[in-house]
Specification:
Pfam families: FCD, GntR. 73% of the residues lie in helices and 4% in strands. It has 223 residues and is mainly α. It has a two-stranded antiparallel ribbon. Strand 1 and strand 2 (76-79) form a beta hairpin.
Length: 223
C-alpha cells in the first residue's frame, strides 16, 4: 500500500480534511512508506490529496505534536527518527503515566471492560497482519485505562504509543517477542479482573520496561 491508496481509503470517512490527511500520513510513517529523516513536501502531498497546502500544513503540525514529524528552517517537514535516549525517556514517561492510568481505572473496571480486553487479546493471537498487531496492542491498553475517565491522560499516553508504534511493529516480527508480550498482557488482565491494583501496577511497569529495553537495543544497533 502507498500514500495514494491510504489517502483514497481515508478520504471516504466523514472527518475534517486536516485530520484525514494526518491519519494517512501517520499510517504511512508507521508502515515505513516514509523513512526516517525523509522530507515531506507539502506541495506533493497536497497534490496527492487534491487539496491546497493549508490542510496539509495543519496535518503536519498535528504529527509534529505526536512526535512523528519535525520542522527545520532549511528543510521544512521531515519524518522524525527515534534515538536510544529518546526511547529511554519515552519508556520512563510511559511507566509513570500508565501506572497512574491503571490506578485510576481499576476501581471503575466492569465485567464488560474485562471481556472486551479479553477479546482483544484473543484476536491478537489469531492476527497475522503486523499493522493490526500494533493497533490491537493499543486497544488492549486503552480498554483497561479508559474507565479511569482521564481523557487528557489517555491522550498523552496514546501519543507516546504513536511515537513508538513503527518500532513496536518491527519488534512484533522478532522471535518470541509477541508471545512474551501476550503472556504479560494476560497476567495484567488477571490482576485487573481481581481488582489487584498493586499487582497490576507492578506487572505493567515490568511490561513497559521490558518492551523499552527491546526497543533501545534495536535502536542502538541501527544508529
Amino acid at each position: 500500500m502507498n500514500l495514494g491508496e491510504l489517502a483514497a481509503n481515508l478520504l471516504q470517512k466523514q472527518r475534517s480534511t486536516p485530520d484525514l490527511i494526518a491519519d494517512a500520513l501517520r499510517e504511512a510513517i508507521i508502515q515505513g512508506i516514509f523513512a526516517e529523516e525523509q522530507s515531506l513536501r507539502q506541495d506533493e502531498i497536497a497534490k496527492q490529496f487534491g487539496v491546497s497546502r493549508i490542510p496539509v500544513r495543519e496535518a503536519l503540525r498535528q504529527l509534529e505534536a505526536e512526535g512523528l514529524v519535525k520542522f527545520y528552517n532549511n528543510r521544512g517537514a521531515v519524518v522524525s527518527g527515534l534515538s536510544p535516549s529518546e526511547a529511554q525517556e519515552i519508556c520512563e514517561i510511559r511507566i509513570v503515566l500508565e501506572s497512574m492510568a491503571i490506578k485510576f481505572a481499576i476501581p471503575n473496571l466492569e465485567e464488560v471492560d474485562i471481556e472486551k480486553a479479553q477479546s482483544i487479546l484473543d484476536a491478537t493471537v489469531r492476527e497475522t497482519n503486523i499493522a493490526m498487531l500494533g493497533k490491537l496492542n493499543w486497544e488492549f491498553h486503552s480498554t483497561l485505562y479508559a474507565p479511569g475517565k482521564r481523557s487528557r491522560l489517555l491522550n498523552m499516553i496514546n501519543n507516546l504509543h504513536i511515537s513508538t508504534e513503527r518500532y513496536v511493529r518491527l519488534q512484533m516480527t522478532r522471535m518470541n517477542y509477541l508471545e512474551r508480550s501476550q503472556k504479560e498482557h494476560y497476567l495484567l488482565l488477571d490482576a485487573c479482573r481481581n481488582k489487584n491494583t498493586s499487582t497490576a501496577v507492578k506487572l505493567l511497569k515490568r511490561h513497559i520496561n521490558s518492551a523499552g529495553k527491546e526497543l533501545i537495543a534495536y535502536l542502538e544497533k541501527t544508529v
